[in-house]
Design goal:
With about 170 residues, the protein is of the alpha/beta class. It has a single domain, classed as Collagenase (Catalytic Domain) (3-Layer(aba) Sandwich). A hairpin with a 2-residue loop joins β4 and β5. α2 packs across α3. The radius of gyration is 15 Å and the shape is globular. The two termini are about 25 Å apart. The mean pLDDT is about 90.
Amino acid sequence: MAEPDIPWMPKIRDTKILTIRNDADVGLWSGLVTAAVPIFNDKIMKALKYNIVTEGKANVIVKVAGAGKDDPKLGATATHGVARRWKGNQGIEEAEIYLPATPWQSHRNVLQMILMHEMAHAAGLEEHASDGVFMTLPNVDQNGNISATKGGRKMPAFFFTNKTITRMRAIW
């Protein structure tokens, strides 16, 4: 049975804005949050918006996995990141995104997709889509083009499926 999507608590959800702080601006991940946030905001079709903050409190914090003792273990060459969410009585209260220290591919397109995929989880989505940024296991060619199937629609340009956008709107 599919896990239900999880909304954020009303005082955050009512703004349709999540603040995101980048604590992973190192190595392969350098500059990726700054690049990915505007793409995510555009492609999710105004279901919600991420705003980048550089210091202080944020709803979502991006980290490289393995830096802290309680970080999730992603394996030697991870194909994805992990989004952890903390829920209260009224919905999600905060989230952290953990990016793999050694991702399975280092092409910038793949890294952006990993980050935006985890941003969708942090925003409340559970079950994956069959295509687009929120798919489970993408195919990646030698040029960094990403698709659900070998002959499928290529990313970039990144996209969310209509079903994913509808689900996001339902919880925001």
